[in-house]
Amino acid sequence: MTFLTIGHRGVMGVEPENTLRSFVRAEHEGMDVIELDLHLSKDGALVVMHDANVDRTTDGKGPISDFTLAELRELDAGDGERIPVFEEVVDAVSAPLQAEIKDTAAARALAEVLTRRDLLDRVDVISFHDEALAEIRTLLPSARTALVASRYGLDVIDRAHAVSAGMLVLNIRRLTLELVERAHAAELKVIGWTVNTPDHLKLARGLRLDGGTTDFPEIRRAARYTA
């Protein structure tokens, strides 16, 4: 069984998260897929950042939605890196991407870029927000989508089907073999997050997951020898 290793915000364990430097490093380290997060700036740019506020990962303060793209570009996102926009990541790496919609309002902007840049074969759209995935399905019926969840039960399978998602991306600490088997029987792939240690990787393998999202390049190397 193929086990995908997905670089979490690039490889955030060793590089500033959600920066071009982190994404390029993830590709260099051989990650199968690179995951990133999307919000909208005040002027509608599709900016790559996890939090709704810039405080944790930059030298600025306040909500992303209060900044124009030009203002966001002035912030240091770690080691001199600048906050990228989605299109820049698409151009900087050639690996498949998981684009996580953190702000439901970003769904339409992402759909526009995926269409304009012909990226549907390269980008999976993922989100904690069922309504964001439903909107993507309406705008782009052929898009590949995944439902992300941290606290969940077996009902997460029905939620995924309700928005026509083909994959679940789930907090590995709550995963059970029963859920994975039911998801697979329902033709859903299951990815676990975050797989950051040998024990996490052993658990992911034991649960027969389709892949794991990780902060560290070493997990990619370890996964090659635990097939």
From TrEMBL:
Enzyme class label: hydrolase
Tagged with keyword Hydrolase: yes
InterPro entries per record: GP_PDE_dom (IPR030395), PLC-like_Pdiesterase_TIM-brl (IPR017946)
Keywords: Hydrolase
A Pfam family: GDPD
Top-level taxon in the UniProt lineage: Bacteria
EC number of this enzyme: 3.1.4.46
Residue ranges occupied by any GP-PDE domain in the UniProt entry: 3-224
Annotated GO MF terms: glycerophosphodiester phosphodiesterase activity
Name used for this protein in its record: Glycerophosphoryl diester phosphodiesterase
Organism this protein belongs to: Streptomyces demainii
Classification of source organism: Bacteria, Bacillati, Actinomycetota, Actinomycetes, Kitasatosporales
